[in-house]
Write a structure and sequence with these properties.
Blueprint (H helix, E strand, L loop, with lengths): L3 H11 L6 E3 L6 H14 L1 E6 L7 H11 L4 E6 L2 E5 L10 H7 L2
């Protein structure tokens, strides 16, 4: 679990990120969840955009993602943009989580 300072740090880092995954009119499929997990394993912080014509709401996306993998944390949700964070399983790819761990 992240404290407030860690969440604030991640929100600040996510502000400049482009949305790397879009959920569209086909809804949220298993492939979207696997793609999100793969991106999180590589980058640790991913911004997801739920398009206006999507058949799912951002709340549905958050619920589905957290049911898919409990280690994925929702950092922020503003409108149709959601930011997710997950510590990379490989130590070589843990760049952001090392910075987060230093914040207490």
């Amino acid at each position: 679990m992240l404290n407030k300072q860690q969440q604030r740090f991640l929100k600040k880092r996510a502000q400049k990120l482009p949305a790397s995954l879009q959920i569209g009119k086909n809804g949220l499929a298993e492939t979207n969840l696997e793609q999100l997990q793969q991106q999180l394993n590589n980058q640790e912080l991913v911004k997801v955009s739920v398009l206006q014509n999507a058949i799912v709401s951002p709340i549905d996306v958050i619920t589905a993602v957290q049911n898919f993998d409990r280690r994925i944390l929702k950092i922020q949700a503003i409108g149709r943009v959601i930011v997710f964070y997950k510590r990379a399983p490989q130590k070589a790819k843990r760049h952001l989580s090392l910075e987060v761990d230093q914040i207490r």
